[in-house]
Amino acid sequence: MSQNGSSPTLKIIPLGGLHEIGKNTCVFEYKDEIVLLDAGLAFPTDGMHGVNVVLPDTTYLRENKHKIKGMIVTHGHEDHIGGIPFHLKQFDIPVMYGPRLAMALLQGKLEEAGVADRTELRTVRPRDMVRIGKYFLVEYIRNTHSIADSFTVAIHTPVGVVIHTGDFKIDHTPVDGEFFDFQRLAEHGEKGVLCLISDSTNSEVPGSTPSERSVFPNLDRAFAQANGRLFVTTFASSVHRINMILELAKKHQRVVSVLGRSMLNVIAQARLLGYIKCEDSLFVPLNMINKIPDNGVLILTTGSQGEPMAAMTRIANQEHKQVKVRQGDTIIFSANPIPGNTIAVVNTIDKLMMQGANVIYGREKGIHVSGHGAQEDQKLMIALTRPKFFLPVHGEHRMLVKHAETAKSMGIPAENMVIINNGDVVELSQESIRIAGKVPSGVELVDASRGGVVRQNVLRERQQLAEDGIITIAAAVGWRGELLAKPEVHLRGVVTSVEKARLEKLVVQTIETVLGDRWKEFTQNFGDGEIEVEWTKLQAHLEAELRRLIRRELQSNPMLVFLLQTPAESAAQAARRQRPVERVAS
Fold first, then answer.
1. pTM, rounded to two decimals
2. 3-state DSSP call for residue 248?
3. Which residue in 116, 111, 181, 190 sits closest to 153, CA to CA?
């Protein structure tokens, strides 16, 4: 309900994609129904040791899984569909609607994860309308982006029409000839759009984002100047870019060998659906390229972001079994580093150059354009839809603020928009938009090699190990509170000016002091020569004292693993431990 309790409200709850780039996930909730829009993933930062995938916290969805009626998928990028297989392991989503390419890519992911039976995939085409539950009628409106088959959606709800742009840019000369459906957007604007939820990724960039086609002549020039083997790396999901690269390969009479599982999968699905058109004869297996002259070979590969396991990174590290860089190779990076990947990318480029390759990279070369609209594109979206309320999404905080400033310059009052964070509950009525609460938000970290969620305490331990190393101390204590042998101390990854012999001596002193001063606190004497020792409490106390010692002496905080070896208990002690102890009040 709204503030005055009279009119119904639509709840809009982003679980990912706010104050960050990636893991775009949004919840639309009306009364007892929830519809999800996209469910993406992000990639780990340097401090997330051993983490392969970053997902949004889905506590709210798990607690309200009985309300979920379906999902709207806008396009097939990983930051919009990559989280779906993980979520389906925790809760069912009855039906998912999305474009043909996204659904084809998703089908493979679900089958591989073993969750294809947890949902039903249905494909949509431009201007299709689908009903999800009782309260949501969703219309798919063609837009232009860096992947084929991308859509903006108009969501008809009981409070009004909400338009979510999805990822978009304004491309008047799209590579696939599928034009942005401005007419339909304008029709909605004429009838009345209650709220526009819009992509903010490039809101700091003035002007308009160039057409994808503008890359073609610059790539053409680079192809023409390459005398030896030619390598090109780009995003596997950039279907338009891949289409142009294959077109240029044919023009310059080069056969193509494809490296990288994701690249192979996207090309196969896009060819099947007709988004990439080329003859089978253009492709050759990797083991055939040594039989072809160098100037007739193009190797198309993943790894444009310096990902550790991607093909181009392994080639740069000289770890690829079949491909080694040679003097005279030309390598084109047809992608700009996304935030957080710059160091990995420049390190890869350096290594390739050291091996004799001519590497072509950088914004000034004109071999990459963004898939997101800049300020003038965002203005056109606002002008066409003419929304009453405005909600900037998909971007870091400064991007959201800048997008809101652009909306204000277009005549949307400041009180009719909100800057939100993941987990904020936006209540939208016909009269107002406001933040009305918060649900659990944050991240779920997946160690894909083990298939499990990496909890925060595990991540902290990994970080501690990486920064300060680990110390293990093993001590054996007898029934009379005496050390039975000299404690064993092992250091791994610990940098210290303290000699190990001195540290071992201090460890012995600390343990003996605790045993000498406080042994009676952990024992109970039964008068028959039998005593009972609370070994667990003793171990905890010794561990706390040893941790203080290590911090004081080493001036660092390595992980401490303390092993306390205790003597075997007698039969009488075991029996006493099994029966309940009667306490008599003193």
1. 0.81
2. helix
3. 181
CB 433 within 8 A of CB 445: no
Cα 484 from Cα 144, distance rounded (Å): 74
Measure the CA–CA gap between 272 and 123, rounded to whole angstroms.
Answer: 15
How far apart are the C-alpha atoms of 25 and 39, rounded to whole Å?
A: 5
3-state secondary structure of 131: strand
Torsion angle of C-alpha atoms 96, 97, 100, 104, degrees rounded to 10: 0
Rounded-to-integer distance, Cα 585 and Cα 372, Å: 75
Q: List, as one string, the DSSP characters of 120-164.
A: -EEEE-TT-EEEETTTEEEEEEE-B-SSSS-EEEEEEETTEEEEE
Q: What is the DSSP letter of 211?
A: P
Q: How far is 63 from 80, CA to CA, in rounded Å?
A: 22
Q: Is 114 exposed, middle or buried (0-12, 13-18, 19+ CB in 10 A)?
A: exposed
DSSP 8-state symbol, 282? G
For 65, residues 6+ apart whose C-beta sits below 8 A from its C-beta are 90, 91, 92
> What pLDDT is attached to residue 380?
98
As a whole number of angstroms, the distance between CA 10 and CA 29 comes to: 6
Strand pairing of 297-301 and 330-333?
unpaired
Distance CA 485, CA 504 (A): 12
Q: Give the length of the chain.
A: 586
Confidence band for 9, pLDDT divided at 50, 70 and 90: very high
Here the tokens at position 511 are 């343990």
Give tens-digit pLDDT for 556-576.
Answer: 888 888 999 888 755 555 555
